[in-house]
Amino acid sequence: MAPQRILLNLGLDLALAALALPAALWLAAPGAWPPAGWWPGGLAGSLLAFAAAALPLRLPRQYWRYVGLPDLLPVLGASLAAALIFWAGLLLLGAWRPPNIAFPVLHAGVLAALAGGARLIGRLQSAHRAGPVSDVPPQPVLLAGGGDSADLFIRALIAQRAPGYRVEGILAPRARQRGRRILGVPILGTVDQAGTVLDELRAEGRLPALLVLADPGLAGGALEALLDAADRHGVPVRRAPRPTALDPATARAQFARKAGRKLDLRPVSIEELLDRPQVPLDREGMARLVQGRRVLVTGAGGTIGSELARQIAALGPANLTLLDHGEFALYEIDLELSESHPGVPRRPVLADVRDEARLRRLMEEIRPELVFHAAALKHVPMVENDPLEGLLTNALGTRLIADAARANGCRAMVFISTDKAVNPTSVMGASKRLAEMYCQALDMQARQGMASGSGGMRCVTVRFGNVLGSTGSVVPLFRRQLERGGPLTVTHPDMRRYFMTVREAVGLVLQASVIGAEDFYSKDGADQPPELREGGIFVLDMGKPVKIVDLARRMIRLAGLQPDEDVEIRFTGLRPGEKLFEELFHGQEPPRPTGFPGLLVATPRTADAALVGRAIDEVSSAARGGQARLALAGLARLVPEFEHAPNTPAAGRA
């Protein structure tokens, strides 16, 4: 606050203190008035007493226009302290004093009433003065979210001279809140009762023009049910600006100032709709795994790799090496981490995971203790067009990273796999399955070595489905198509996929890393639980698969449009290598629990690491020689469940 503003506030408070003294004297003893000579010293004493009490409590620094209950407590304290100081001064000096011994209490009350009342008047005068005047009537809205979230939104509207919205009712989180009011707005029901409340409002002719989500935590299944209820009545849904995470008084002030200029409501995103409640994670275990260790992340510029880099940087590694072959993607994540975690030593490295000599030199130099291998070619049609590139990156690249890490004393390598590796019909899926086989074989070798006392690098494989918003995924594609006005292209009306947010997926990857990297035997010699004893592939609990056509329809509705009326949905047919349904488990690897929410483990299907390694080398040699038919035949021998889609162009290449 500017010094001149502080002095003005102090001057106003002292003027109010000067008015409070005669008012308190009259209330204490109307017939007993002090002599004329008493007033100069009495007024000066009352002002000094108030200043002595107000300055330590920082009363002159208060914003009167944003005053709230927490701000009135210092006013009350200063008033009481000033009255006691003034009374004590009268007693010590032996000056005239009113005969009523209740004078200090009355003096404090009058001071508090004048100082507090002036602040409340300032707060009321500041309302309805932000923003331009408009003749457009405000839109009636129904607000979803109780407590502070509803309070902040309504106050933001009050702060506008011509608010664009008028809150007609509130949907609160709990049933016991029904019938109560927040700033005069009635609570009509709960969020779960949105359909019933909208039915009632329609019957009364008061259907809102908009349903506004004020609660930032409203997501997942509860949000989907709310959207369905709004869709039935043709009521658009928008989300309110997210309030700042400060104390309530400051939050209200900042939110009101921001909203007073323009209250922007944004559409609900598909990520919010499909998001699920965060499962409890072993954050302490993650910190123990990462903190103070040298960490390498491959594919650090990609969707999964960059989120891994963010979450790992927050856990305090000794240093973090970011490896990617894409210059701009690597630059972006390095720049982001330099701003968000400047204290974490890091090194961006431009390299190809297929370059054996480069990887060997790098590993010898940085000697990572943990490697998170996210680098891959993952777009199914693109890999079908160039299958040899997919084999070299996904299978050979994984083997080279694992071998170089193991040779340089790495404690654990975490390999990011995909549900497309289960009963694959694409080269991408089969190449990832081949990489899974090698990592599983290395992990079993390490576990057997630990049982005999020799140890070895643990290989943790984590398999999951599609990540919302990842590069090349369906959600960004639908967004681009919506921006152009459609149509939205879906390959088949029955196509289903598993979806997960990148934040949730990476959190569970780190959780699996903690479990998989634990010692095979505990310190007291007791075995791990049987379901974890033999290792295997960790599989993220992806929930229920989502029909892609339903996803397209929901995104159209979230944009405020109607499917098949405003925006066409066009079916284009399966692309090379695609399946209608993805699977998370093969028939010979039944799922087992891990005891950790969100994580399952697939029974390992293992082979000798040396045999798998030689087989990968043979396939890679054919791929490097441009012998597509020979390379794919070798891949089919190694992954017998691989049934290449018949419309794959690569199948007929020499």
From TrEMBL:
Entry keyword annotation includes Transmembrane helix: yes
Organism placement in taxonomy: Bacteria, Pseudomonadati, Pseudomonadota, Alphaproteobacteria, Acetobacterales
Name this protein carries in UniProt: O-antigen biosynthesis protein WbqV
Similarity field: Belongs to the polysaccharide synthase family.
Organism of this sequence: Muricoccus pecuniae
Pfam families: Polysacc_synt_2
Membrane-spanning parts: 7-29, 41-60, 72-95
Keyword match Phosphoprotein: no
Boundaries of every Polysaccharide biosynthesis protein CapD-like domain copy: 295-599
Keyword list, A-Z: Membrane, Transmembrane, Transmembrane helix
